[in-house]
């Protein structure tokens, strides 16, 4: 064990942090750094620039010298715009129950820290986004994972089996599977949450990228507004990943608790991004439609090609395909990278039940996607 000034290093670091596994996605990113020859379907990041109108508003605001802190909760104009915008997902939240966050990432963190007491159970249906488990553990929770293969939907019976839980984290359209939840699916989850007396943390970051049916927020279901924390943001819908902007809509007490944490650890979300976000919600619809149409075209093409060699469920949304590869996912991803210069993420990075799958993000140009599809199909045929 390493020693610094006579103190054992392990004692210097919080035990929970020291025991966290490194992200399975990160490992694959590291392998492709600086490799121009690789087509990366690994990154869950839009390949579009931030729409020009949004950039323009942010540039003007900088020219005007608007660079100070905003109120902790976020600009009232932005919170009002979010409240009106959310109506399209089924309910109009009170702007006073909205916190503008530094991305959905912060929203997940403060929602968990606001509600978890040590040892409380948090249910995480898997495969799922990589931060849910580590952030739950850091908040002091006991994580209960529920595998959702093969249809990737959490079922009432599986959820209520847990007996007692403080929270259920859901994400739809889903990263990594692309699956979204219908009204009936949402009702099952809502009924289970009531049965367990659990709070639902609903990560709706891909709500705008829904292709099969219109996105409905679970908070809009009868009787659910008081037990749902809705998280959403601008990273995926408006291609604003690096601007770090999102928001949380939370019921009374949970809202107060989240705001307390946010005010101490973040003060406020970046002001320039908040100004960009106002423009996005006011005038961004045509940009949204343009990007959504392009993702849809890519999805249809890519799924058709992958079906030549794999079993592929048609994704309902987001920009991911999660084919079943019938091989060890890490070995497959590594060989694909070294032999064919295509980067994908092994499915087990999103939970054990993701083993045997890979995640491919189609957030690359059609030209690159075609080339990647040729290489993947060729590789899969060769290894049989
Ligand atoms: N939630 C999900 C499901 C995601 O896929 C991501 C990013 O990939 C995030 C949250 C993080 O979003 P943000 O950039 O708003 O922090």
Explain this structure:
The chain is α/β, with parallel strands linked by helices and 384 residues long. It folds into 2 domains: 3-49 and 286-377, Aspartate Aminotransferase, domain 1, CATH 3.90.1150; 68-284, Type I PLP-dependent aspartate aminotransferase-like (Major domain) (Aspartate Aminotransferase, domain 2, 3-Layer(aba) Sandwich). It is 41% helix and 14% strand. The chain contains 14 helices and 14 strands. It has helices at 9-12, 15-18, 24-32, 52-63, 76-85, 103-115, 132-138, 156-160, 183-196, 252-265, 271-283, 285-306, 329-340, 366-383; strands at 3-4, 7-8, 39-40, 98-101, 121-126, 142-147, 167-171, 199-203, 228-233, 246-249, 320-321, 342-343, 345-346, 358-361. The protein has a 7-stranded mixed β-sheet with strand order 4-10-9-8-7-5-6, with helices on both faces. Strands 11-14-13 form a 3-stranded antiparallel β-sheet. Helix 6 (103-115) packs across helix 7. The radius of gyration is 21 Å and the shape is globular. The termini are far apart. The mean pLDDT is 95. Residues 44, 103-105, 129, 171, 175, 203, 205, 233, 235, 241, 246 line the site of pyridoxal-5'-phosphate. This is Aminotransferase. GO terms for molecular function: pyridoxal phosphate binding; transaminase activity. Keywords: Aminotransferase, Pyridoxal phosphate, Transferase. Its EC number is 2.6.1.-. InterPro entries: Aminotransferase_I/II_large (IPR004839), AspAT/PAT-like (IPR050596), NHTrfase_class1_PyrdxlP-BS (IPR004838), PyrdxlP-dep_Trfase (IPR015424), PyrdxlP-dep_Trfase_major (IPR015421), PyrdxlP-dep_Trfase_small (IPR015422).
